Amino acid sequence: MQYIERVLSKFAPINLKISLKECNFGQQELLALGHKLSGLSLAIDQNKVAEILQKPVPKNIKEMQSFLGFSSYYRKHIKNLAHITSSIYKVCPKDIVFENTKERRDAYERIKYELTNAPVLILPEFELPFKFYIDAACSQGLGAALHKIQILGSEPREGVIFYISRQLRDSESMFRATQTELLFLVWNL
């Protein structure tokens, strides 16, 4: 309760008002902004995922861009999203006629699968060690995962804090794997 009072006391000097009917106090879990938040974790709101699962494969560029925007919002939950979406992004410029190829349909279905099976992200605890994994072996993009070592009972276990990825630029796609991994380390710093 003391933390709530501290936060609310900061609102008055800047004339910020809150609506009590929009507030949730003392909750173990909270659905907000498409996420399910708990004390130590962040998960995708399954109601949002259910909406996407019911939608058919996009039929035009606008529908595909809408889907890409949705999946990009949850990019922290999807390992190597840039690699998965690389075939889809090739069709997004306005001067290209949209063709729903097998490769694009497969990418669409894979993203839907990844969204429905996305890990629950854990919040960092800075007292415990972290592990940072990078994957720059593919010519499509860069991917990484930040993990935290958790002690559950007496056994250590790794949990995902977030995934990050991006596509390679044309000039970067000619790098060898070791050069690409170094590029990725520089990009993340």
List the helices and strands and how they pair.
Elements: H1 2-11, E1 29-32, E2 35-38, E3 41-44, H2 46-54, H3 61-73, H4 81-89, H5 102-116, E4 121-122, E5 130-135, E6 141-152, E7 155-167, H6 177-188
Antiparallel strand pairs: 1-2, 2-3, 3-4, 5-6, 6-7
Helix pairs in contact: 4-5
List key phrases describing it.
alpha+beta, Ubiquitin-like (UB roll), Reverse transcriptase/retrotransposon-derived protein RNase H-like domain-containing protein, 3-stranded antiparallel beta sheet, 4-stranded antiparallel beta sheet, 6 helices, Viral_Replic_Matur_Polypro, Rev_trsase/Diguanyl_cyclase, 7 strands, 189 residues, RT_RNaseH_2, 24% strand, 36% helix, single chain
Residues in β-strands, percent: 15-25%
Provide the CATH topology of the domain at 121-188: Ubiquitin-like (UB roll)
CATH architecture label of the domain at 121-188: Roll
Major sheet size, sense and barrel closure: 4 strands, antiparallel
H-E string:
HEEEHHHHEEEEH
The rounded distance between the terminal residues' Cα atoms is 38 Å
> Residue ranges: pLDDT <50 for 5 or more in a row?
none
CATH first level of the domain at 121-188: which class?
A: Alpha Beta
Structural class determined from secondary elements = alpha+beta
What would you report as the Rg, rounded to the nearest angstrom?
20 Å
Mean pLDDT: 84
Helix content: 25-40%
Q: Give the number of helices.
A: 6
Strand order of the largest sheet: 1-2-3-4
InterPro entries: DNA/RNA_pol_sf, Rev_trsase/Diguanyl_cyclase, RT_RNaseH_2, Viral_Replic_Matur_Polypro
Domain Reverse transcriptase/retrotransposon-derived protein RNase H-like: 101-188
Organism: Austropuccinia psidii MF-1
Protein name: Reverse transcriptase/retrotransposon-derived protein RNase H-like domain-containing protein
